[in-house]
Automatic annotation (TrEMBL):
Species the sequence originates in: Paenibacillus flagellatus
Domain (Histidine kinase) ranges: 20-224
Gene Ontology MF terms in the entry: ATP binding; phosphorelay sensor kinase activity
Keywords: ATP-binding, Kinase, Membrane, Nucleotide-binding, Phosphoprotein, Transferase, Transmembrane, Transmembrane helix, Two-component regulatory system
Name of the protein this chain belongs to: histidine kinase
Length: 226
């Protein structure tokens, strides 16, 4: 028992440390990327190829931070009752510009009195990872619809896209660490998301059809606002 408690405390210290390191590392990564980009524009031949690899690896490092620790706060996770519409206001602020950049459109329809129990940063991380995948799956005239409503004792959130979709094999591998079909993917986003939702006593399932689109369905136990 004693051992287990210590292990848990160690894990908390490690994840706090990771969160603060992520924040500190993101800026220098961006600055470095800028300088290498400059060199890359001037360079030629072999030099350019090496710099291109360096850029790709830098992007991989940023991708890991984004998938794992976008909202991570370097303090012990506090769990409270969260109002879903407030959380989604923040999520929208980040993702709508990202969708526009890809030529996509996002519609968000979150009912007013939906409450869930959890940690605000983690909840946002979970949905950003799901929705970012939808944005990345869009090609051209993409649309993403986010709907949240109450169904008996559940709060249901559905993220529906008309992106490229997945086949059975891809679907069955979702959440597996390092499974990614993208050249610059980390394959860590959904692993983190499944874990966060599980800890919140929620469930996440995917329905998808190749060439048609994907739907992510999340269910949480409804929490009263008290
Ligand atoms: P990454 O985005 O870094 O590849 P994720 O864990 O976020 O890693 O996703 C794993 C894989 O699941 C993606 O590479 C993609 O193949 C597939 N996937 C997830 N969401 C969708 C979606 N909405 N539409 C199509 N494919 C998806
Ligand atoms: Mg992803």
């Amino acid at each position: 028992y004693n051992n287990r408690l210590q292990r848990h405390e160690k894990m908390e210290i490690i994840s706090e440390l990771a969160a603060s390191v992520a924040h500190e590392v993101r800026n220098p990564l961006q600055v470095t990327r800028g300088f290498i980009q400059l060199l890359c524009e001037k360079g030629d031949g072999k030099e350019k190829a090496y710099l291109q690899y360096a850029l790709e690896e830098l992007d991989r490092a940023s991708g890991i931070i984004t998938d794992f620790l976008t909202f991570a706060k370097p303090q012990l996770d506090d769990v409270t009752v969260l109002r879903l519409s407030d959380e989604f206001e923040h999520i929208e602020g980040i993702l709508v510009p990202m969708a526009h950049l890809q030529g996509g459109e996002i519609r968000v329809d979150v009912e007013d009195d939906l409450y869930v129990r959890g940690n605000s940063s983690k909840l946002k991380q979970a949905f950003v990872n799901i929705i970012k995948n939808s944005i990345e799956a869009l090609n051209g005239e993409g649309k993403i619809e986010i709907r949240a409503y109450r169904e008996l004792d559940d709060v249901v959130v559905r993220v529906i896209d008309n992106g490229h979709g997945m086949d059975e094999d891809e679907l069955s591998r979702l959440g597996e660490p390092y499974f990614s079909s993208k050249t610059k993917g980390t394959g860590l986003g959904l692993m983190v998301t499944f874990r966060i939702i599980e800890v919140m006593q929620g469930r996440l399932e995917f329905i998808s059809k190749k060439g048609v689109g994907t739907e992510a369905i999340v269910r949480f136990p409804y929490a009263s606002s008290e």
